[in-house]
Amino acid sequence: MLLNNSRRSCMNELIAVLRDEFRTGFDKLGGLIADTNNRLATTNEKLEELRVDLTSRIDNTNQKLETTNERIDQTNAKIDQTNERIDQTNQRLDRTNERLDQTIERLDQTNERLDQTNERLDQAIVQIGQTNQRIDQTNERLDLAIVQIGQTNQRIDQTNERLDLAIVQIG
Question: Which run of H or of E encompasses 158?
Fold first, then answer.
C-alpha cells in the first residue's frame, strides 16, 4: 500500500510539473503568435505599397511597350525589304557557286594531272640520284687514276733524271 501511495505521489508531482511546462510553453506560443500577427500586418502594409507602385510601373511599361511595338512593326517592314534583297543576293550567290563548282572540277582535274607529273618527277629524281651515284663512283675512280698518273709521272721524272745523269756520265 505504501508503494502505491509513493507512486501516486510521484505521478501527481510529475503531472504538476508537466502542467507548469505546458502553461509556460503556451504563454510563449501566445507571445510568438502575437509577434507574428504584428509582423504580418506590417508586411501587408508594405505589400499594398508595393502593389500600388507596381501598378504604376506596369502602366508605364505598357505605354513603352506600345511604342516599342510600333517601332517593331517599322523594323519588320525594313526586315522584309532586306529579306527581298537577301533573296536576290542568294540567287546571285547560287549562280556564282555553280561557276565555282565548275572551276573546282577543273582544278581537281588539273591537280590530278599535276599529281601524275609529280610522280614522273619523283621517278626522274630517283633516276638522277642513281646517275649521281654512278658519277660519284666514276669520279672516285678518276681520282684514283689521277693519283696513279701522278705516281707514274713521278717515276717518269725520276727515270728522266737518271737518264740525264747517265747521259752526263756518258758524255
Answer: helix 2-170
Phi/psi for 131 (5° steps) reads -60, -40
For residue range 61-74, list pLDDT tens digits in order.
Answer: 999 999 999 999 99
Return the closest-CA partner of residue 155 out of 147, 19, 121: 147
CA angle 65, 67, 70 (to 5 degrees): 110
Half-sphere exposure of 117 (CA within 13 A, CB side): 6
Please tell me whether residue 6 adopts helix, strand or coil conformation: helix
**R_g over Cα of the chain:** 59
pTM, two decimals, is: 0.38
Amino acid at 123: Q
What DSSP state is assigned to residue 171?
-
